[in-house]
Amino acid sequence: CLLCVLLMREAVVSTQSTGTTSIDVQGMSLTFRGKEVVLSLLNKGCEVSNHVMSEDTERCSCGKLSWILRLDKTLMIKFANEKSEREFREILEGLGDPARLSKFKARTEESSASQYFQFYGYLSQQQNMLQDYVRTSTFQRAILDNHTDFQDKIVLDVGAGSGILSFFAVQAGAKHVYAVEASGMAEHCRELIKHNKYEDKITVIHGMIEEVEIPEQVDTIISEPMGYMLYNERMLETYIHARKWLKKEGRMFPTKGTLYLAPFSDEGLFQEVSNKANFWYQTFFYGVDLSNLRQQAYTEYFKQPIVDTFDPRHLVAKPIKHTTDFLSDTEDSLKKISVDFTFYPHTAAHVHGLAFWFDVSFEGSQKTVFLSTAPSEPLTHWYQVRCLTETPLYARPGQPIIGNVTLISNKRQSYDVKLEMNLAGSSTKVGNVLDLKNPYFRYTGAVAIPPGTHTTSPSEQYWSSDSQPQTGYSTGGAGATGVYNGYTPAATVKAPYPTSPNSYNVYDENTY
Question: Residues 176, 314, 352, 381: which is the catalytic one?
Fold first, then answer.
């Protein structure tokens, strides 16, 4: 079966064997087929010829950017840059070794993977996730409340980390758990298992799920594969890949992931990001004129998704959703995710972009449990994500906002977010392309109330309330009297997990 295709359009391919006609080729494609690789020569995107490479194929490097292959004809392949040559060399080294040809390695830059696994190999990063009370408690509740899906069952834990989900599965009565972890955290996981005397219940397998062997088929798969905006880090593809070890009627926890998006209005955020570029307006910075870079800086700042939390009243329309079913959707379906939308604003507002958050559902045989990162719910280490446009749209109540958002996967374990929207009946269109790998962490622990929200005097309302603090000093502000319509700002929640910026900002893969 075909495992994956890697395009190398930077390559320039020419034939060098005697009696062989030269072919003007713009690139080539490599298709993994078991232990072999089919090399297809392309001319303007059209296939010219195919050649099969195996571990027995004679080959040698020629300089820094070229390779000579002896196939049915001798080919000399010259690459345009070292990155393309390195990727090709790694494929040649992996011929005959399916592990070296894994889907993960084909879709991931080596430097990104190295930093990723190093990051999750630190106990401090595991602690950040474990201390997310909403996350950890919801996973435990979903597993224990569906104990029949674990009792005497074989369980696979994908990306086990510290092994906390494996422990929950044992608590629910699992017969045995295979905990697969690719980072150095696997050793710490073994230590915890030994310390808790669960060696007969949990087996740690150090490696990537795309490359390791599981001794048997499993009844249930558990994992925490969600990233910012649900899809960041591209671990959902690994989670779906693990289905090859799942029995026909097996279950997955979580079962589905739903991405929500809605237009928002936040003049304060827009001005804050705009003003950051004003640094580059300076014409005499230590004697240097920086002003010619101001527009480039402005564009760069707006390409950063904003990771923070916000008052739900910043949303100007009801959200729409896009759902991924982990039991049925394919890995390829996550390479490009396109969502068309039509929003109907409930108020007149300048629309500054789209806000994103997600829910995941654990659909067990006894109960369905949801984990939500919505702005109306207690804060998690995923926060919410907002994508700005450089120019706002002015929308009137009921005037449709029409557009599309497309997430295009990249080899940095992330996505480029392409956003386009316009007003119905208007030629005004706005758009942006943002780099989800490089977000701006803005969370400060406080939630700004949208200006103009109050219809009565907040001062009169607060001081006439029986809930005011006895000290005479407000620590909860208007939130103490419930004007947040059911939403309590994180600053007033006495959560059993940290809420300071330093607590979860390190979760961002931009730091590793």
Answer: 381
